[in-house]
Amino acid sequence: xxxxxxxxxxxxxxxxxxxxxxxxxxxxxxxxxxxxxxxxxxxxxxxxxxxxxxxxxxxxxxxxxxxxxxxxxxxxxxxxxxxxxxxxxxxxxxxxxxxxxxxxxxxx
Length: 108
Fold this sequence. Notes:
alpha+beta, 108 residues
């Protein structure tokens, strides 16, 4: 079973949030670039939990930006977390960060 959490913020850029979480969670984020997502930041924890920080506005095919998460058009930066159900939840640490809001959580 996998747990997926989505957080959003307008208080930080993707780079700022990556720096903040790197300090708080003692992880290293790698800056990456893709044609689909643009510039994003990725970290993987020892328990295989994957943390991805990216802008909500992603490059569209028509030269206009599209929204990665169109359910939350007012959110500028997303934190996408995918973890095994047995992983230690990060919710307590993340909820202590001002300006970061949990948007959704799913189990599959």
